[in-house]
Amino acid sequence: MLSLSEEEVTRLRREFKLVLDVEVVPELCMRLSAELGGCLPRPTSIVSVYFDKPGYPLTSRALRSPEDCLKVRTKDYLPDLGAEGVQRVVLEVKRERHGLTQKRRVWVPRVQLQSVIRGSAGLLPLIAGGSLRPVLAVSYERHVYQSAQSWRVTVDRAIGYHPITAQLALSATTLTADRLEPAVFTDRHVVVEVKHLGDELPRWLAALHPGGRRPAYSKFAEGMARVHTFAADGVFGG
Questions:
Q1: What single-letter DSSP state applies at residue 33?
Q2: What does the DSSP assignment read for 69-137?
Q3: pLDDT tens string 135-191
Q4: Under 8 Å between Cβ of 176 and 183
Q5: Can you give 49-69 as a three-state secondary structure string?
Q6: pTM for the complete prediction?
Q7: Closest CA to 150 of 205, 75, 191
Q8: End-to-end alpha carbon distance in the chain
Q9: β partners of residue 136
Q10: Helix or strand or coil: residue 27?
Q11: What helix, strand, coil percent values describe the chain, rounded to 5?
């Protein structure tokens, strides 16, 4: 069975990202924990696999116009709290256009993933065509801070960029970091994403918005440049 996920802040939102040195993150996490009444979220290990078509049109678009691009990926979560014994994965299309992010996500049993990717027209019309292939795997550890339905902050550490094969990406077994090829590069920075619905954020959190002072950061663009030499000259983020 396929089920849509999740709440509105996941499906349609505005967001901004920060790339921080490890040393400054504990203070930020303390303030975020205070918003949760002092609770400390448990970490989740995530493996994302990005897909593209022959000629890499999605990669080219993300590098050329990060403010207006499309990304197709799967996400495996460990632990997957809603799995109920089924090895499953999220298939996701992420559309970014001038500061607004929209996602279409479905949970897919891993045993069905290959057929779903090949016949995705009815499920996710934006990726119809059947020629998608995996081009990049990204592993990281995420902490999620959320005290309201209207905003969420994610903190990603130990971000690794890996080559990926179709056999592994589309396998029937949950994809974990230890099943990937060794990382070509592991980022020492911490990536913080503030995701919201346009409502008022806590003032101290809104003040972190970098505005136009920094280029956008993208795991997809950064990872493609690390793993594929053709993309190395075009990392603009997104």
A1: H
A2: EEEEEEEEEES-TT-TT--EEEEEEEEEETTEEEEEEEEEEGGGHHHHHHTTTTT-GGGTTS--EEEEE
A3: 999 999 999 999 888 889 999 999 999 999 999 999 999 999 999 999 999 999 999
A4: no
A5: EEEECCCCHHHHHHHHCCCEE
A6: 0.88
A7: 205
A8: 32
A9: 50
A10: helix
A11: 25, 35, 35
